[in-house]
Design brief:
The protein is mainly alpha-helical and about 280 residues long. The protein contains eleven helices and two strands, in the order ααααααααααββα. The longest helix has 25 residues. The chain is elongated.
Length: about 280
């Protein structure tokens, strides 16, 4: 169904999108092309309607050949989500370098913030994309598939911290890990939808932090309750005495540290002999 013409989000989609952390020029160029194709697709979807837009038209508006489009996207509905692959990589990187002392649920919350940054970097584009996904079932299904990838990533991470097969009375960690991963994604999506419906206005990061605090309060105290998450060094074991003796019948057995002073060893033996 054709839609009335709207202001093109194309320019802002390319300039305002978050920069890729990719370390190679080729990766950066690939992401730039994906964003340009996405901007062209959104412009055509907004002006002509999703059904009336063809892949050839998207490629033409982006100034590339049809085969170039298919090197980057498998279908036109996939084209309006150019940053999800890169964002998934950044979220995974957060998990990979997490400090050992950090609670895994806190790590997951930090990881999913990479997704919110992607949307918040270009509010106008994100709001327009949200409108399109609400109107076009094929785009909505693509969005749902993208969200499922994040949820699988975070679930795997949380489950990796616990023995998934260790289901016994009193150990609910595997269950809590899986439910908590879903809760983090759900909290993120709730805040994101509310922000998009408000036209991309408001402090979305503060809203997200509040939502995560609820998730932590609900699940955080249960997950890994029996594990030590502190980085404080373990207490030093009590030092063994320099020397000790014991008797076995008429035999006196002395045991001493190799670094024990000889006079202390001899004094211990003499005292043991006097008390014999």
């Amino acid at each position: 169904m054709s839609q009335p013409a709207k202001t093109s989000p194309r320019a802002s989609a390319v300039s305002d999108a978050p920069e890729t952390p990719a370390g190679t020029k080729a990766a950066a160029q690939r992401l730039k092309m994906r964003r340009e194709l996405a901007a062209a697709a959104m412009e055509l979807f907004a002006n002509k309607g999703y059904e009336a837009t063809t892949v050839d038209e998207i490629a033409s508006v982006a100034g590339v050949a049809r085969r170039t489009f298919f090197r980057h996207f498998r279908s036109k509905e996939e084209a309006i989500f150019p940053d999800h692959d890169d964002t998934l990589t950044r979220a995974e990187a957060v998990l990979d370098v997490a400090p050992a002392h950090e609670h895994p649920l806190d790590t997951v919350c930090r990881g999913i913030k990479e997704v919110m940054k992607m949307y918040a970097a270009s509010p106008a584009v994100s709001v327009e994309r949200y409108r399109l996904t609400r109107e076009v079932p094929a785009l909505r299904e693509r969005e749902i598939a993208s969200v499922a990838r994040y949820e699988r990533l975070f679930t795997r991470y949380l489950l990796a911290h616990f023995d998934e097969t260790d289901h016994h009375d009193g150990n609910d960690d595997p269950l809590l890990a899986e439910v908590a991963a879903s809760a983090v994604v759900t909290a993120h999506n709730h805040v994101l939808r509310r922000w998009l419906r408000a036209g991309g206005q408001g402090d979305v990061e503060a809203q997200l932090d509040h939502a995560f605090s609820i998730v932590r309060k609900t699940f955080g105290s249960g997950i890994g309750a029996g594990r030590t998450l502190s980085t404080a060094p373990a207490p030093e074991p009590a030092a063994a005495p320099p020397a000790s003796v014991r008797t076995q019948g008429e035999v006196l057995v002395a045991v001493a540290r190799t670094d024990a002073p000889l006079d202390e060893v001899m004094r211990t033996i003499e005292e043991a002999l006097r008390n014999k």
